[in-house]
Specification:
Elements (H helix, E strand, L loop, with lengths): L1 E8 L8 H17 L8 H13 L10 H4 L7 H22 L1 H20 L10 H14 L4 E8 L2 E8 H21 L8 H20 L10 H18 L2 H9 L21 H16 L2 H14 L7 H13 L3 H14 L6 H14 L4 H11 L6 H18 L16
Antiparallel strand pairs: 1-2, 2-3
């Protein structure tokens, strides 16, 4: 005996899931209407069988209506019961998030896509709501990946209520184990379950719901999978920044921390006199003129420890920024480029520096608002048409990330038509 059934989630339901409840009722009513309780070969029984035969999805005799009708046909009570449990557990929150009309269209489209996937891989008839429910399940995964699902577990004498994160339950148990691994291990190549319809439904639900979030057709919040990915990237960037020995020391000991070179690993000597700033600036210029870039960056680190407000000459400041970028020290490179633009806003290299700074903000720091401002300021000042084209490409990706309209050929926002 092995039973592993989700029974509820902690996902918020902020408005009544009218369509989801209606779908459950419709499936139950159609099942009762097409499956008489007493199989006595009565006219009612024969009518029920004929309706079911008419409504199934038959790849050998496809009709357009079958892609909708098969979603409401079920083979027996347990087939119906299992599907409706999953639809109740995962569908209510998705219905609440999407709204009634959008959810109904999404549900039916998931069933159609699952039917297409099944028809392309099998010649046997298919019936049941599981393809559409598979789409609802992965939509729940996209919207509430870290929600907790309560699961009834019965394995021989072991009976427990478990609490599992939705991301793990849906991906590992429901998709990978139930639909990929277990069928091949346990069925011996024969199965009466339309796994290809399930997998097509999972793919449809995940992809479409993710796209709806990305274009902000669905409301975003701190629980969805895009927010989860963003927090992961922020933690990764934090780990990258904290890999700098100087940053670790500053975080631990504050201003009394003794700086350490990331190249030699040796402590950087910080002179006590104010003229140390002058000497460090001279040493940076000397190292840059000789092409000793590692040493120049090390001296620049020491200068920033001594006085973070220091700005080098225009050529040296730009060179240091480029050297920091080439060493993948992106936060430090951003700071150096910002210093250059602040000190030399009218310099001939300022547009190119703005473009590079915008790319750093976009690609590595995900600060799209600042990147948009930089790209817009520099795009018309760049003389090289290839650089202008590159800037437009980056600006387009930034606008997409911000959910703003794309650029029109003239360089401005596209205006919606009336």
């Amino acid at each position: 005996m092995f039973v592993f059934v989700p029974i509820k989630t902690d996902a918020p339901i902020r408005r009544p899931p009218v369509v989801n409840v209606s779908l459950i009722v419709a499936n139950a009513v159609i099942f009762l209407a097409t499956t008489p309780l007493f199989h006595d070969r009565s006219p009612l029984f024969d009518w029920g069988l004929s309706v079911r035969d008419w409504g199934v999805l038959d790849p050998r005799n496809l009709r357009l209506y079958q892609f909708f009708s098969y979603q409401f046909m079920h083979a027996d009570f347990w087939h119906l019961f299992g599907n409706m449990i999953f639809l109740w557990v995962f569908g209510n929150a998705v219905n609440s998030k999407m709204g009634n009309v959008a959810y109904l269209l999404f549900y039916l489209a998931a069933g159609v896509f699952a039917g297409v996937g099944f028809a392309m891989t099998s010649s046997s008839p298919c019936l049941g709501a599981s393809g559409a429910i598979a789409g609802v399940t992965t939509a729940f995964l996209v919207l509430y990946p870290q929600s907790v699902v309560s699961v009834f577990c019965w394995i021989f004498l072991f009976i427990r209520f478990l609490h599992v994160q939705a991301l793990l339950l849906i991906v590992l148990k429901i998709i990978v184990w139930d639909n990929i691994i277990a069928p091949n291990m346990l069925s011996g190549g024969f199965t009466a379950v339309a796994y290809s319809a399930h997998l097509a439904g999972y793919l449809f639900g995940f992809t479409l719901c993710l796209l709806l979030l990305m274009v902000k057709a669905l409301p975003r919040d701190q629980y969805d999978i895009l927010a989860l990915i963003r927090r992961y990237n922020q933690r990764r960037q934090f780990r990258s920044i904290m890999s700098d020995p100087n940053t670790q020391a500053q975080a631990t000991y504050g201003r009394v921390a003794r700086p350490v070179s990331v190249f030699s690993g040796r402590p950087i000597a910080v002179p006590s006199a104010d003229d140390a700033v002058v000497r460090l600036r001279q040493e940076i210029a000397d190292r840059l003129s000789r092409g000793a870039y590692d040493e120049a960056v090390e001296k620049y680190e020491a200068l920033m420890v001594r006085d973070p407000t220091q700005v080098l000459s225009r050529r040296n400041m730009l060179e240091i920024a480029m050297q920091l970028k080439s060493r993948e020290r992106y936060p430090q490179a951003v700071s150096a480029y910002e210093k250059f633009l602040s000190a030399y806003p009218t310099d001939s290299e300022a547009p190119h520096a703005q473009m590079m700074l915008g790319i750093l903000y976009t690609k590595y720091l995900q600060q799209h608002d600042r990147a948009e401002m930089l790209f817009r300021e520099c795009r018309d000042q760049l003389k090289d048409p290839n650089l202008r084209e590159l800037t437009d490409e980056w600006l387009g990706s930034v606008l997409a990330a911000l959910g703003k309209p794309p650029l029109n050929p003239g360089g401005g926002h596209t205006e919606p038509s009336a």
